[in-house]
Amino acid sequence: MAQGVLSQVLDALDLETFLICSSEDEGKEMAIRLMKTLGFQDVDLVFIQFAGPGARVRARAYIYRPGQDYAWVRNADREGKG
Amino acid sequence: MANCLERKKVLLVPLDPVHDIGLKMIRRGLDEAGHQTMLLPPDLPPEEIVSIISRESPDQVLVSRTLGYGVAELLARFVDLTDAAGLRDRTTLVVGGMAIRPELAAELGFDAGFGPGTSVDEVVAYIEGRPYKPDAAGIRKEKADLTARYGYEYRHPAIAKLLEGIVDGILAWAEGKTSPGIKRARLRDEAWDVETWRQGKLDGNFNDAYAALCDPVAEAFYRKGEVHPKTRRQSKEEIARLEDYLTSVEKGMTVRRLQHREGQPKVFIQYGTGCPFMDIAHIKVCEAWGADGVVHFDPSWGARTEGFIGDFLTHQEDGSVITPENLSWIKAALEASTLWQVRAHRGLNTPETVVLAGKLGADLTKINIAYGALAAGTDPARLTVDGVEAIRMAVKYNLPFDVVTNEELAGVPAHKAFAGMLIVAALARRLGGRPMLQPLFAFSPEVMVSGQMRDNYIDFNAAKIEALRAIIDAPIWPGAPIGFLTQTEDRVQSSMTTSLHAALAASLNVDAVSIASSDEAYSGGPIVAASRVDTLRAVAEGFRFFGEGRVEPTKKANQWATEIVEKIETVLKAVAAAPSFPEAMYTGLLGSKEEGAYPGRGGRGTVTEE
Predict the structure, then answer these.
(1) A10 at the B interface (CB within 8 A)?
(2) Is-above-0.90 flag for pTM?
(3) What is the domain extent for residue A22?
(4) Which of A50, B20, B475, B558 fits as disulfide partner to B436, beta carbons 3.0 to 4.6 Å?
(5) Which tens digit of pLDDT belongs to each residue from B284-339?
(6) Strand B9-14's sheet: what is its strand order?
(7) Of B407, B405, B399, B406, which Cα lies nearest the Cα of B431?
(8) How far apart are CA A22 and CA A53, in angstroms?
(9) Which value does ipTM take for this structure?
């Protein structure tokens, strides 16, 4: 099911949260690890700001990069996407 | 006056300690539509409300309540009470308020539920038992002519005289000169018929003649069918899928308006993911979220290649390859109201880009000799002759164009960039063109060093607009994008600064703005659609917030505007005294190496006598 929905993501999925950590480097490492734990491979950190108890992060997983085979194109007329 | 066949009796019930604004607005809508309404005071006990329903026998009961802790139970109990009183079968119960959803309303026993964002018209339509159709006039968009209300009269006689003299010099210098770019543009103009091309019946002679004017990479396409090594051909299957996708999207496509009032600037986004599929997907998202125009952003290597190749091409770099196929495909995907700009402001294909854009139905192009020669890598002499030809082609194809000043981002001071922009604009006017001035709204290196934006981002940007208006009556389209170098990788900050710059632009009554996505400062990957939505929504809020209000610059804006005009005049005097316009650029009069401007080398030595 989740995989089916992911194929309908236009390009990327951003995950935003606040991570309790002791430094920006630790926050970066945790955010990337989180994304990989969730099964994403093409991941990056778009934004991180560390202050006080932890870091505000915006991590990104590209589901499709430009030029790839987008399933949402194939599924355009399909009933009940996902 | 009633606009329905049957007048309804409607009881409006604020089942809430304080909130009844929404119901008051709905009552006004119902009253105007001729219905009989009765608004109860807030926070009556449910039992008393049921008693009133029993006495008044309304056709419909509209309950308003902000959903909070324990509220679902309260609403369910209210429905139970009406049921127990035997009223449920003869009156319709509707609930609305924050966090209400139709599914929740049904679960609680209501006939309908309206949540945040519901319009009065929508509720009136429900009461009248007719389908709700959003106000068509509210979302109908017309394609705007951004140059229509300008006469291009000069307001500064001394600068006008200098510009006219410089234009005389440029035209005299370019007379009788040509380049491979001009030859290709003229060949494309004369021998490439777009309908014949669409039918796949293009004369092979065109390809032979064209290939002879290209560099080896482009020539290989026409001689051997090879595409640029960085690109990939899209398959017939992929193309068929995209057509199906577009058909599907068009079925449900609607557009929004970002502007809150007439006269607020049109909003452009730049696309150029590298893949026309992805571009089209992004364009449709942006149109749906209110973009008025889209700008084709081509790859940097395209500017360094003599000649265009063809076919449906994709690649994984910034910028989407200009080919007739890619452009015509993107054009076909656009909404009728969307302004489409194809940039021809730099590079070795400048005049031919204008021809292609014109033949394929673009609305606008982008030309600036000074920027292209000083900050985009093309030889000043080459871009001068090509620029003159590009402007002539823009006139022929009726394409207005902006004159961008992105050399400011390299470090060139605004007044020098503006001098170059005004020269190109004056040249365009002489040739019958419709230029638009494109100052940057940017935290540029000049202001970083000199401190004009230490206190605010308003004054120097306002000064730029004031300075240009003191010189000429011309359309102004800040870009590109607005807020350049003020955005960070934080999407909230990035969207907000874009929104504030858009609000400033609206306050200054400019004609258009180009905006970034909230990914503007992120360099780790392609811009994503969600980030485009962020800034479009933020700009709409900025326009809404200020409405007919104004951003008030301080006195510094006026002082800086005067200084900018004086410095522009000084620069133009120096350019007018130079041996030629290209020579003025080589020697740094419009931006020196110390200021970050380097005369380009692309196409050096390719200008020849006709």
Answers:
(1) yes
(2) no
(3) 5-80
(4) B475
(5) 999 999 999 999 999 988 899 999 999 999 988 889 999 999 999 999 999 999 99
(6) B36-39, B9-14, B60-64, B92-96, B112-114
(7) B399
(8) 7
(9) 0.92
Distance of alpha carbon B165 from alpha carbon A25, whole angstroms: 59
What is the C-alpha separation between B511 and B357, in angstroms, rounded?
22
Is the pLDDT higher at B392 or at B236? B392
> CB–CB of A77 and B528 under 8 A?
no
* B57 CB-contact burial (10 Å; exposed 0-12 / middle 13-18 / buried 19+): exposed
Which secondary-structure segment (H or E) carries B482? strand B479-484
Instruction: Give yes or no for residue A63 having a pLDDT over 80.
Output: yes
Which DSSP string corresponds to B283-301?
A: HHHHHHTT--EEEE---HH
As given in the structure block, the two tokens for residue B408 are: 């400011």
CATH of B9-128, picked from 3.40.50.280, 3.30.365.10, 3.90.1150.10, 3.90.550.10, is 3.40.50.280
Which residue do the tokens 């902000």 mark? B66
The three-state secondary structure class of B479 is: strand
| Number of compact structural domains in chain A | 1
Question: For the segment B200-233, what is each residue's pLDDT rounded down to a tens digit?
Answer: 888 788 999 999 999 999 999 999 999 888 899 9
Q: Are strands B364-366 and B401-404 parallel, antiparallel or unpaired?
A: parallel
The DSSP 8-state label assigned to residue B62 in this structure reads: E
Tell me the nearest-neighbour CA distance from B491 into chain A, angstroms: 8
Residues of chain A in contact with residue B528, where contact means CB-CB under 8 angstroms, are 10-12, 14, 60
Chain-centre distance of CA A59, in angstroms? 6
**Residue A23's CATH number:** 3.30.30
> Where are chain B's structural domains?
9-128, 157-591
As a whole number, the mean pLDDT across chain A is 90
In what helix (H) or strand (E) does residue B343 lie, and over which residues does it extend? strand B339-343
The domain made up of B157-591 has a fold known as: TIM Barrel (3.20.20)
3-class state of residue B94 by DSSP: strand
Distance CA B273, CA B317 (A): 7
Helix (H, G, I), strand (E, B) or coil at B472: strand
Choose among B242, B278, B524: nearest Cβ to A66: B278
Query: Of B156, B216, B206, which is closest to residue B184 (Cα–Cα)?
Result: B206
Positive or negative CA dihedral for B274, B277, B280, B286?
A: negative
Residue B426 tokens, joined: 């004056």
Going by C-beta distance under 8 Å and a sequence separation of 6 or more, which residues neighbour residue B548?
Answer: B261
- Cβ neighbours of A79 in B, within 8 Å: none
- The residues near B555 (Cβ < 8 Å, ≥ 6 apart) are none
